[in-house]
Design goal:
single chain; alpha+beta; 6-stranded antiparallel sheet; 149 residues
Length: 149
């Protein structure tokens, strides 16, 4: 069944604050196999001009689907979660994410389209600090396999 196109433009959030820690950054960097010292060594990060260690560029996936995930379970949208796979993601940065950041997201469904037998849902999440400072924007495309059938 096709997704409800009336949901394009609908927003979710802001989320509860997500607290970025050195441990979470280090664990994520280890999980993706990235040994960059800026992700682990506070002194190296400071020497490079950062207030603390920074997160790898793909780190926002850890929390970006938190707010966008609300859309997936919104019954009016019509997503069959059992048929969902992650299709694509990208990030646009204003500044790096640092340990100590407290981040909130507001997510908006920006597109719903059909591709063959699949429905593609694109969610934009604006990531800011709790004080409103822009940090990055994430774009996630979710694929509902067979949703257009």
């Amino acid at each position: 069944m096709a997704l409800n196109r009336d949901f394009v433009g609908k927003s979710y959030g802001p989320t509860a604050p997500y607290e970025v820690s050195r441990v979470k950054i280090r664990e994520f960097a280890a999980a993706i196999g990235d040994g960059n010292p800026l992700y682990r060594d506070q002194e190296a990060a400071r020497a490079a001009g950062h207030p603390d260690v920074i997160a790898p560029p793909t780190f926002p996936i850890v929390f970006s689907l938190q707010s966008g995930g609300e859309a997936l379970v919104d019954p009016g949208l019509g997503v069959n979660v059992a048929m969902v796979v992650h299709g694509e993601q990208r990030f646009e940065y204003v500044r790096p994410i640092h340990a100590g950041d407290r981040l909130v997201l507001t997510s908006t469904i920006t597109d719903i389209r059909t591709a063959g037998q699949n429905e593609l849902l694109t969610i934009r999440s604006d990531v800011t600090t709790v004080d409103g400072e822009p940090v990055c924007v994430t774009y996630n495309t979710i694929v509902e396999r067979g949703g257009a059938a």
